[in-house]
Amino acid sequence: MPKVTIKTDDLTIEVKDDYPLIDMCEDHDTSILFGCRDGACGACMVKVIEGDEHLSPMGEDEKDFLETMGAEPDERLACQCKVSGGNVKIDVSE
Ligand code: FES
After folding, report:
1. Ligand 1, residues 23, 24, 26, 44: which to mutate, most atoms within 8 A of Cβ?
2. Residue 64: φ, ψ to 5°
3. What is the pLDDT of residues 17-34, one digit of tens each?
4. Judging by DSSP bridges, how do beta strands 75-77 and 45-50 pair with one another?
5. Is residue 39 in contact with ligand 1, taking CB distance under 6 Å?
6. What tens digit of pLDDT does each residue of 62-88 get?
7. How would residue 55 be classed by pLDDT, with cut points 50, 70 and 90?
């Protein structure tokens, strides 16, 4: 099973394949905050340190939103990501 590490929280959690990152964060009371839960507010932006290839591909809406926000190429919206196939390391975006 894939493992998700959140650097700020010094926390590593094993998750089922295809598991939504938002569910993992909320199950474990992490530092990643959520607002709209729909890819529209940016509250859940995270920096992907390792394992980008193990996150679900970015949809057009997420891509457009991140571009509008001026996000870095390694940033994603946690509410839009599922984890599968391998480990992922993320951190809260500054
Ligand atoms: S919670 Fe609003 S964009 Fe993810």
Report:
1. 44
2. -60, -45
3. 999 999 999 999 899 999
4. antiparallel
5. yes
6. 999 999 999 999 999 999 999 999 999
7. very high
Residue type, 25: C
Position 74, amino acid: D
**Can you tell me the distance from the alpha carbon of 39 to that of 79, in angstroms, rounded to the nearest whole number?**
6
Report field, pTM of the whole predicted structure over 0.85: yes
Identify the structural domains of the chain with CATH numbers, from first to last. Answer: 3-92 (3.10.20.30)
Which residue's structure tokens are 């507010």?
41
In sequence order, the 6+-apart residues with CB closer than 8 A to the CB of 26 are 34
45-68: burial string, b at 16+ Cβ within 10 Å, e else: bbbbeebeebbeebeeebeebbee
